[in-house]
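Database export, one record per block. Field names are fixed; values are copied verbatim from the stored entry.
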Amino acid sequence: MKQTAVEWLVDVLLHYHNTEYSKRIIDQAKQMEKEQIMDAWKYGRPYLGNVEDRDAEQYYNETYKKEKK
């Protein structure tokens, strides 16, 4: 799976600042990035016509979601 810029930054930050507050801020940043990626996929491909939210969610999960081990 691809690693986003936010995920890379999270890895670095948690190495030095592994606190509850940091984790909350990181979760918020990840959600914001996910929404931006999904919006870019939905609205940046006008030749597809209407794209459902679930299609954008599926794209995000297939491209960026890490499998839990």
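Remark 1: The mean pLDDT is 80.
Remark 2: The chain is about 70% helix and 0% strand.
End of record.
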